[in-house]
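> forwarded from #structure-qc
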């Protein structure tokens, strides 16, 4: 009995704190990266105000949250972030929000281990459209739980969107098959494309490791140069959110040994194109990637891409 009395004020105080914290939210939905923001917008329509923190051309592995971003995370009604250590330098801010009990979800976490690998999961899940479609389902479920009144509408919009993703996935499978088999090798600045390689049947090599934090060493560059020469690979790719330096070093190294490698184009790895453009949507970003890769490696994809919306 004595114990119960002692506990009661603590429990009451706990509940009260949570309620006060929840009341402080401004009702916005904050997302960390554009790939999540776009899907959230596609599903929520005009019902929600969505604020994205890490924009075009910015590397999420390295991004240090500003004071105003921390503020937005704390005030939001709901926070949707990627997880799997993708937003490495935001972890403590996200955790402090979670500790307060306010709605927050790591939308890329909790997937089947077989899909993502268990030990240190590669965070670049959006590179396999069929996996990102499962993340779209999770985002739809989070929205429906957050705004019950509109949950039916969210479900319908989520299903429509997943249908489009399914079409894009089919397109990618088809066009990558048109690359001559020996040239199905994708060399990019950092290891963001391994899910793409696995899903669509193309070997993938990154000049840097999975995170952009470590710079490519001379030894790794030399090995890659020899590999390109051996396989007669015509093009390698730069990425919009990663400095070109190491990719240029590979091209120069190959030239010194008499093998001409071109830049096959710029791919979107961890950030999308400018907001308001087709490449500034998840579907447009991946359409651009697939179409650029296929045409630079000797395959045959329509210039306008999957739905004739790509333009130079
Ligand atoms: Zn990355």
């Amino acid at each position: 009995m004595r114990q119960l009395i002692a506990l009661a004020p603590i429990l009451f105080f706990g509940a009260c704190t949570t309620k006060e914290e929840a009341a402080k939210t401004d009702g916005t939905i904050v997302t960390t990266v554009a790939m999540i923001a776009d899907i959230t917008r596609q599903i929520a329509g005009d019902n929600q105000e969505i604020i994205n923190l890490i924009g075009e051309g910015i590397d999420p592995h390295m991004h240090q949250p500003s004071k105003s971003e921390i503020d937005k995370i704390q005030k939001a009604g709901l926070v949707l972030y990627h997880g799997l250590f993708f937003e490495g330098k935001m972890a403590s801010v996200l955790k402090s929000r979670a500790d307060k009990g306010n709605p927050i979800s790591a939308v890329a976490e909790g997937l089947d281990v077989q899909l993502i690998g268990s030990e240190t999961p590669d965070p670049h899940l959006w590179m396999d459209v069929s996996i990102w479609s499962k993340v779209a389902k999770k985002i739809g479920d989070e929205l429906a739980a957050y705004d019950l009144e509109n949950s039916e509408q969210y479900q319908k919009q989520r299903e429509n969107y997943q249908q489009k993703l399914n079409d894009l996935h089919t397109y990618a499978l088809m066009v990558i098959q048109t690359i001559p088999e020996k040239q199905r090798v994708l060399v990019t600045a950092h290891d963001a494309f391994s899910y793409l390689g696995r899903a669509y049947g193309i070997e993938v090599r990154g000049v840097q490791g999975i995170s952009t934090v470590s710079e490519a060493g001379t030894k790794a560059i030399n090995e890659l140069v020899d590999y390109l020469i051996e396989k007669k690979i015509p093009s390698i790719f730069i990425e919009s959110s990663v400095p070109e330096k190491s990719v240029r070093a590979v091209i120069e190294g190959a030239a010194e040994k008499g093998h001409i490698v071109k830049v096959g184009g710029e791919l979107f790895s961890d950030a999308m194109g400018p907001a308001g453009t087709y490449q500034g949507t998840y579907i447009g970003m991946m359409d651009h990637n697939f179409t650029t890769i296929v045409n630079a490696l000797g395959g045959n994809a329509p210039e306008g891409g999957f739905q004739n919306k790509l333009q130079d």
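QC bot note: The mean pLDDT is 89. The radius of gyration is 22 Å.
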